[in-house]
Design brief:
The protein is mainly α. The protein has helices spanning 3-24, 30-35, 42-53, 56-69, 73-98, 106-110, 113-145, 156-171, 176-204, 209-218, 236-252, 255-261, 267-301, 313-319, 325-358, 366-394, 397-408, 411-423, 433-454, 464-478; strands at 427-428, 480-481.
Length: 490
């Protein structure tokens, strides 16, 4: 594909994003940036959250998973439903009742200052590494498919700067208010990319829509439920329970995702948003998996050489011209939409968390708030650029992927602290909480590394998050007394 064509399409795409940013960023104040003035229509938030929850990693990787895991991912998606209902009817009432801007400030009142700061640090670490990893993948695709094919050499560092600068450019004024609407725009392009690819593959193989469905069902990839072996990482109850808790932690206890929900006009609207979003997400994930099965069927039909890494399958078929120019262009747009719809809100939530949780910006005058917010926004953008460049310098995809995995360990302490705070009234020795929050992930990592030897062949999958949260909870329990008053923050 001609790189100039790709650049023209991407520039046009971002011009549309900038027009949305201009329209939504007229009220350049902190309430608009952090909470969208609490005026977002719930159905717009629900639709936009689909793109935010399905990052560029999902867009690239999920279709490739079906070769080894079939449709077993749907077991986890069904677990998500349970988690989202817990968010809607347990966590959201709490957040709205306390009128929170940063959800982690709840822990200051409930457990103390050290607990509050620990949870915010855990979020910052997770989100910086996670957002950088997703943008790193996008930058790699741009570098190899566009800039490396140009006559003028473009360093990877320049690619990264452009990638992050574009996010900063359309979010620096409107913040979350802008993102609510740009996510809707980007979700549309992401879904169009997948649907058009499925349609064109079917057309190439002379299959009707019914023929496409039958081909997927009859293939070796379509098994959803796995009940046979509890040591199998695809085992139903492991995936289902993990899905429920992953949804609770990575949506309900994540400032990034909850900041969107907290822009709704009322608790009732936020709950309608969450329930609608969770139901639609089931079908969207099913479409992604169907695309994966169809890509493998297509590759087999035309005797294509499969890439060494399964998550490169979609990009290979789309970008190498097997399905025509349209699929290649929509793949680029879909990838950009998926990656940016999660990365832009990550940058905004990082800015929000640092401003509220560490700078105490809500106590400042409006002009001081604006200055601090803008400088923090710039600083967080630079942090993302640095981390992405470091990933490239490591020059080992396995190591980078492991860093992304390790970042997920920091969500366990957040789960444990919120569970402890919500489900009992015990007083905790707040100044020792950071120790418990460090030990729980370390112990989880050690147990995971030795689980097959220690637990009769048992392999942890995503349910490792439950273990991490449980260890944090038990650590806090050991640091607590029966008094119903929390230790004063020191």
């Amino acid at each position: 594909m001609d790189p100039l064509v790709v650049i023209l399409v991407v520039v046009t795409y971002f011009a549309l994003l900038m027009s949305i940013s201009y329209w939504t960023g007229k009220d350049d104040d902190s309430d608009s940036f952090f909470r969208g003035n609490r005026k977002s229509p719930w159905y717009i938030v629900a639709f936009g959250m689909i793109g935010a929850s399905l990052s560029g990693v999902t867009f690239i990787s999920v279709p490739g998973w079906v070769s080894t895991s079939q449709f077993s991912y749907m077991q986890m998606v069904l677990g998500y439903l349970v988690g989202y209902f817990v968010i809607a009817y347990v966590l959201m009432p709490l957040y709205y009742r306390l009128n929170l801007t940063s959800i982690y400030s709840y822990l200051e009142d409930r457990l103390g200052l050290y607990s509050y700061k620990t949870s915010a640090v855990c979020f910052l670490i997770s989100k910086i590494i996670g957002a950088s990893f997703r943008l790193y993948l996008v930058a790699i695709v741009f570098q190899y498919s566009v800039f490396d094919k140009m006559d003028v050499s473009v360093p990877f560092e320049v690619t990264v700067f452009i990638t992050v600068f574009l996010i900063w450019l359309y979010t620096f004024k409107g913040g979350i208010k802008t993102i609510i609407w740009t996510d809707t725009f980007q979700t549309t392009f992401m879904l169009l990319s997948v649907i058009i690819t499925i349609f064109l593959i079917g057309d190439k193989m002379n299959l009707s829509l019914g023929g496409v469905v039958d081909s997927i069902i009859d293939s070796e990839y379509s098994q959803i439920f796995f009940f046979e072996d509890w040591n199998d990482q695809r085992y139903f109850f492991k995936q289902f329970l993990a899905g429920a808790f992953i949804a609770i932690v990575m949506t309900g206890l994540d400032q990034d995702m909850m900041q969107k929900n907290l822009t709704c006009k009322s608790l009732g609207d936020a709950q309608k948003n969450m329930v609608t979003f969770s139901l639609v997400l089931v079908f969207v994930n099913l479409i992604f998996l169907a695309l994966g099965a169809l890509l493998y069927i297509f590759a087999s039909e035309y005797s294509l050489v499969l890439p060494d890494k399964a998550d490169q399958l979609f990009s290979m078929i789309a970008m190498d011209g097997h399905l025509g120019l349209a699929v290649g262009l929509f793949f680029i747009l879909g990838l950009v939409a998926a990656a940016y719809s999660s990365a832009d809100s990550a940058l905004t939530s990082l800015t929000t968390s640092f401003c509220v949780d560490f700078l105490g910006i809500e106590k400042d005058m409006p002009e001081t708030q604006k200055k601090k917010r803008r400088w923090t926004h710039i600083a967080m953008s630079l942090v993302l650029i640095i981390v992405i460049v470091v990933f490239k310098r490591i020059n080992n995809d396995n190591v980078v992927s492991q860093l992304f995995t390790v970042a997920g360990y920091t969500y366990g302490p957040i789960l444990g602290m919120f569970a402890f705070g919500i489900f009992n009234n015990r007083r905790v020795l707040d100044k020792w909480v950071p120790i418990a929050a460090i030990l729980a992930p370390v112990l989880s990592y050690i147990i995971n590394a030795n689980s097959e030897a220690w637990l009769n062949g048992y392999k942890f999958s995503f349910e490792l998050l439950l273990l991490n949260g449980f260890l944090t909870f038990m650590g806090l329990l050991m640091l607590s007394s029966k008094s119903k008053l929390t230790e004063p923050a020191s």
